[in-house]
Amino acid sequence: MSRVEIRVTISSDQDIVLARQKGRSLALELGFSSGDATLIATAISELARNIVSYAGSGQIALKDLQGSSRVGISVTASDNGPGIPNINQALRDGFSTSGSLGLGLPGVRRLMDEFEIDSKPGQGTKVVVKKWRP
Amino acid sequence: MAKRDESSELLRELVAHLRQNRTQLREEWVGSISETRLLTAMTKEEIFAEATSVYDSYVEALETETFEALQAYARNLSERIIPRGVETHEVVGIVLLLRDVLARSLFAKYQTDFKKLNRILDAYEPAANRIANTVAVGFVQERERVIRQQQEAIRELSTPVLQVRERLLILPIIGVIDPQRARQLTEQLLRGIRTNRAKVVVIDITGVAAMDVTVANHLVQTVEASRLLGATVIVTGLSPEIAQTLVTIGVDLGKMNTVGDLQGGIEQAERLLGYKVMALAEPN
Amino acid sequence: MEVPILKQGPVLIATFQAALSDADLNQLRSALVQQVVRFRSRGVIVDVTAMDVMDSFASRTLREIAHIIRLRGAETVIVGIQPEVAFAMVQLGLTLEGVATALDLEEGLAYLNQKFKTMK
Ligand SMILES: Nc1ncnc2c1ncn2[C@@H]1O[C@H](COP(=O)(O)OP(=O)(O)OP(=O)(O)O)[C@@H](O)[C@H]1O
Ligand SMILES: [Mg+2]
């Protein structure tokens, strides 16, 4: 059950900044510490940048998570880009097809509590990550 | 609208009944509280005093159909009884008992007029449930606040960041570190570096018995994050077991600044800070 | 959003005002390199105090800046990384290896001055 849903269309590097700012304020609103809000904003930045770099455009959706005994935030990054042929490889530290550091996806996984990725060549990519308030 | 008015009118009648029979109903309630062995942490007198206030707030909430006063009272009550070890189920329990004591007295009063009884109960039930809910939520929130506060206090105590000299911090870690504590520790150290403008930090882990891979990773991250703030970290008291764990996760111990014991660590820190050099350079 | 670059003796100081976009970062990189050449600066301080997120792109750009500036014979130091930002960076795996860091502007200047002395 969630009460808030914020969608940010991602099509340029400006949108990356917007998405992570929205993510930070939602996290703070939900009672995350500012340290956690920074982790969440950083993860959003990575996911949004991958959309711009590899798919051209897509969307970031931010939602609150209201569990029976805990509160959290979920971030969904989705695009209709080329997709990822080998997900395991993409999740490895240092793997990059763009000559970058290859830390984005594995790093996001470390920053957040839950990480799910769904991607097929030619069908786009969807990454859902969650973090729970301690 | 008509329905609303009728319900208000019924509630008024109800309130009058509860006021009239205050002494007797309150006694009955207190009786059933001790029968069901709730609030055992409190004396009979205390229970009676609190019960009186709760009863009056309860009736007032029914009368005014506003819950702010009750909410404030519930919070205040919680603040007083939480340190005594009263549990959530007890608070919810006594409010539900009161609801039932009052409902029973309504049965008794209106048993001859079944229609009226039904209408009264229809008006009473939602209000009574809201009251129970308000009190329970107030209690749980207060309890959570107290627990959070206590945890904070314990954590602050168990991870002291000591400033031994200008620009030099020591973080002696003792005991078992779980990931949560490790995180707390890092955040505290990083803040400490900033506020004390520290240039060197000695993390002493002599008192750490064991370290799993997650925590070892955390230690490495702490060292790296400190450097990002411009501080050098020296790790002292590394046991062979922990050193092995670090090697296992791929840490290059040669890159990490390690010194055998705390004393040696402090000496190296002072060299890094240039204390000796300064003393020599000082004109006499 | 343009990043202002201040010249203070042999040192250039670039202060990030707020959250920067990729384009801003790229612009900063070229501006810094140009000015280092133009003023024959010996040191560059990049002050990131106001940055609330340092992701892989920003981090890579800072590394590149430090690298290119070194090729021009000058030293770079990054100052003002916030504790929370530093924590997020290392979780992500960004450690700015090979790049000098200091607590704040004052420390950064002290670091560069020390360097200049030993370089002479
Ligand atoms: N949304 C996406 N669409 C298509 N491919 C993607 C997408 N996201 C990631 N990838 C692929 O997965 C690889 C790994 O991504 P990751 O974010 O971990 O590293 P990177 O973007 O290459 O480098 P860094 O994020 O460190 O700058 C990318 O190089 C790219 O090939
Ligand atoms: Mg990436």
Tell me what the structure shows.
The complex is a heterotrimer of chains A (134), B (284) and C (120). The model of chain A has no long low-confidence stretch (mean pLDDT 94). Chain A has a single domain (5-132), classed as Heat Shock Protein 90 (2-Layer Sandwich), CATH 3.30.565. Chain A is built from four helices and five strands, in the order βααββααββ. Chain A is α+β, with helices and mostly antiparallel strands. Residues 277-284 of chain B have low confidence and may be disordered. Chain B has helices at residues 2-20, 22-35, 44-64, 68-81, 88-110, 114-158, 179-196, 213-228, 240-248, 262-272, 275-281; strands at residues 162-165, 168-174, 200-207, 232-236, 258-259. In chain B, helix 3 (44-64) packs antiparallel against helix 4, helix 4 (68-81) packs across helix 6 (114-158) and helix 7 runs parallel beside helix 8. Chain B has eleven helices and five strands, in the order H-H-H-H-H-H-E-E-H-E-H-E-H-E-H-H. In chain B, helix 7 links the parallel strand 2 (168-174) and strand 3. Chain B has 284 residues and is of the alpha/beta class. By secondary structure, chain C is α/β, with parallel strands linked by helices. In chain C, 49% of the residues lie in helices and 18% in strands. Chain C contains four helices and five strands; from the N terminus they run E-E-H-E-H-E-H-E-H. Chain C has helices at residues 22-39, 56-71, 83-92, 105-119, and strands at residues 5-8, 11-15, 43-47, 75-79, 100-102. In chain C, strands 1-2-3-4-5 form a five-stranded mixed sheet, with helices on both faces. In chain C, helix 2 links the parallel strand 3 (43-47) and strand 4. In chain C, helix 1 (22-39) runs parallel beside helix 2 (56-71). Chain C is globular and about 40 Å long. The mean pLDDT of chain C is 91. Classes of the chains: A alpha+beta (134), B alpha/beta (284), C alpha/beta (120). Chains in contact: A-C, B-C. Adenosine-5'-triphosphate is lined by residues 46, 50-51, 54-55, 79, 81-84, 90, 95-98, 100-106, 125 of chain A.
